[in-house]
Amino acid sequence: MVRRYVLAPFAATLLLLCVVTPAASQPPATSESFSAPAHISFVEGAVTLERDGRIDDAPGSMPLLSGDRLRTRAGRAEILFADGSTLHLDRDTTLDLQSDELVRLIEGRLRLSIPGPARGVSYRIDAPHAWLQVAEPGEYRASFVRTSNRDEFEAAVLRGSADLINEDGQTTLRAGERAFARADVAPSYAYVFNSAAWDAFDRWSEERRSDRLGLSTQYLPEEVRPYAGAFDRSGAWRYESSYGYVWYPRVDASWRPYYHGRWSTLPSYGWTWIGSDPWAWPTHHYGRWGNASGAWFWIPGRSWAPAWVSWGYAPGYVSWCPLGWNNRPVFQIVAGVNVYRGYDPWRGWTVVPQRHFGSGYVQRVYVAGHQIDSRTRGAFTYRDTAPAVVGYAAPRGVSPIRVAGTAPRRDTSPLLTNRGENGGGRLDASPGGRSDRSPQRTLGGAVERATPGRPVVRSERESSARRADAPSPTPLRADRAVPRPDDRYSRTTPSRPDDRSGAATPYQRAEPGGRERPDTSVRPEPRAERRMPDRTPQAGSPDRGYGSYGRRAPLPDRPTPSTPSAGSPSTAPSGPDRSGQPASAAPSRPGRSGPPAAAAQPPSSRSRGEAPSRGTAVRRPGGGR
């Protein structure tokens, strides 16, 4: 009995001395040389990723590279950038990711959200007939729809500012405005839209936005806070005195990190873990893992890496184990010992045949530790490198996608230039830029712009630059907005000869359905075609003078005689007037330029106290009665 108690501590000490510690044989597990790439953070339905001629039908948690193409035939997808920006893709959308500053929308719809304070942003969404140049953080929506009649690109700004540009012109958009573009014409003018009128895609996008604001944000570093909703739904936070708050996932007892997923090799990163769990990206690329009483927990961290694991090798096998807080494997392989008093290293070490590594999902080719013969188990050793890349690998010329237009600009060149050889022309797409090779198409001396094929409301905001190239007056149409008025013309001219108030009469604008309503955005006729109002008295209306003539209008309680039409002699009513003498004819004076001379009025013959005449009062020239 005494001998057994003496040997037990000695055996335990011997086992500890035989433990292989890989931290001394491999470089420090830091991510100083890595920058987190953009990745597909959420997939709903059927989404495929095309990369160098290969199709991946399960692209969740996949880092994105320049040249990747995403297709969402019967589903939707969310792309999360390292700067916190998001790009949402609707159903039946095809998108090419070209660089940190450019995506190409082949068809479908997308919503872009760039958070953060006001700062310079350079992000472009290309479409077949135009491109949307984003200038500052905000929320933007773009769609390109192909129909049998025509193809149309629509850009809308929910928050921020952007320019819709093509080779024929550009339109500046602010919050709550949208514009349209079609082939061979300049983009349309800015039209207002209701940013709260959501469809199914908008509601889905807003739900994804709300999901990023879960309770777990108080425990997470900023880099992984967009996954707060996934942490809330899939686990619980507990306080550990050695680590602070850690997260325990709700998983099966047989679950382990770096098990449900696959390995993929990427340029600049090498072997990268692609997890299948909805929270695999933050927990397998940030932070470390620990195990207490057989339960796994995750320790939050801020540094990104392709995978935080330690590698082990045996003849014909590859194995890995998650790193703990001290950058050592959570479970260490004990030389010559499989299990000692409940210590089972194979609960943390995942083993696969070397020929199957990197070719499929790990859980399908996993080999349990107790299924390996003891001779092979004893041959496992650590190495400081991942397995060599065998077979397909992405070309080294491609680069990862990281941010959404928030990277420092490389130079101050225009937004887009087409440089011709031998001193050829150049298309400058910067604000105000023009092409010396392909001039803007015009119609009647003005830029021809696209007109939407649906009822829209013209935006009241117009820049002075756009006002300068506004088209000439055209017949009012329900689907075409008209230019704003020119400040040189006065809008206080009465629209009727008998309007003496001087108040402005709003111009009319055609509404869908033939209705008209006042609108101040109509340009009046050019000066050369304007006509002064006809001041000729019309039949049935009194000859009222303008205020500058100094004439008095008839009293409202006295009836006024009907005035003959212009050009015919004006005669007094039949019968004698108050003086008993016949009334003289008084011709009308159409188009007179000044007040008429006052006519002599005969003295009244009615004596004091005589009954007044029953005749009708006659208006005299000069304003008298």
Account of the protein in words:
This protein has 625 residues and is mainly beta. 9% of the residues lie in helices and 26% in strands. Among the domains are: 39-210, Jelly Rolls; 218-383, no CATH class; 459-523, no CATH class. The protein has a 15-stranded mixed β-sheet that branches. Strands 23-22-21-24 form a four-stranded antiparallel β-sheet, with no helix packed on it. The chain has a two-stranded antiparallel ribbon with strand order 15-16. The longest helix is centred in the first third of the chain and has 16 residues, at 2-17. The protein is elongated. 30% of the residues are buried.
What's the quick description here?
The protein is mainly beta.
Structural class: mainly beta
Secondary structure: helix percent? under 10%
In DSSP terms, counting alpha (H) and pi (I) runs of 4 or more, how many helices? 7
Rg from Cα:
41 Å
Beta strand count = 29
What's the architecture of the domain at 39-210, going by CATH? Sandwich
Main sheet attributes: strand count, strand direction, barrel closure: 15 strands, mixed
* CATH class assignment of the domain at 39-210: Mainly Beta
Q: Specify the overall morphology.
A: elongated
Contiguous runs where pLDDT drops below 50 for at least 5 residues: 1-32, 336-341, 410-444, 472-518, 540-553, 562-600, 602-616
Strand content: 25-35%
What separation lies between the terminal Cα atoms? 143 Å
CATH level-3 fold name of the domain at 39-210? Jelly Rolls
Mean pLDDT: 73
Task: Note the main attributes of this structure.
625 residues, mainly beta, Jelly Rolls, 15-stranded mixed β-sheet, four-stranded antiparallel β-sheet, 29 strands, 26% strand, elongated, disordered N terminus
